[in-house]
Amino acid sequence: MQFFLLCCMEQVPEAILQEIQFKTSRSSGSGGQHVNKVSTKVELIFNLEGSVALSATQKERLRLRLAHRLDKEGNLHVVSQESRSQLANKETAVEKFLNMISRALIVPATRKPTRIPKAVIARRLDYKKRTADKKSTRRKPSID
User: Fold this and answer.
1) Would you call 25 helix, strand, or coil by DSSP?
2) Which of 41, 50, 40 is nearest to 20 (CA)?
3) Which among 17, 104, 112, 122 is least surrounded, fewest beta carbons within 10 Å?
4) Residue 108, CB-side half-sphere exposure with 13 Å CA sphere
């Protein structure tokens, strides 16, 4: 995981981390009274439309790939509430965010069409012929 994050950091500019905003609230789940008095749930908010760190092409790619995660204002929301610690949840949210952004920015390689080798075609046709012969012997003999 650490290696993947290091690779991601090369693609994602450091200035993006300055554009992140955090919003905390009380987390749900177990924890008893602790849950009721401490705001440990962290919501990371990143304004994609207002980002200065990303180029126009990167913004367009992120808009297309992360459309289901964006709200009407173009904000990307990442929520973390796994831990009972606010700091741990912030770190988890940032890790999820960087992972999401770096995966969305990856440009898939274009496929180069290749020809099917003649030997493969011949092998497939031979197999089909043998199967057809096998099935033809199972038929009832004709009266002709």
Assistant:
1) strand
2) 50
3) 112
4) 5
Domain residue ranges in the chain: 2-105
Question: Do 47 and 23 meet the contact criterion of CB atoms below 8 Å apart?
Answer: no
3-state secondary structure of 31: coil
70 phi, psi to nearest 5 deg: -90, 145
d(CA 22, CA 79): 10
| Cα–Cα distance measured from residue 62 to residue 105, given in angstroms and rounded to the nearest whole number | 7
pLDDT in tens, the chain (144 residues): 343 334 444 556 678 888 888 988 887 766 667 666 778 889 999 998 888 888 899 889 998 998 888 888 889 999 998 888 889 999 999 999 999 998 998 888 999 999 999 999 999 999 999 999 999 989 888 786
Domain boundaries 2-105, corresponding CATH code = 3.30.160.20
Residue 140, number of CB atoms within 10 A of its CB: 5
- DSSP states along 114-131: -PPPHHHHHHHHHHHHHH
Confidence (pTM): 0.65
- What Rg, from alpha-carbon coordinates, does the chain have? 28
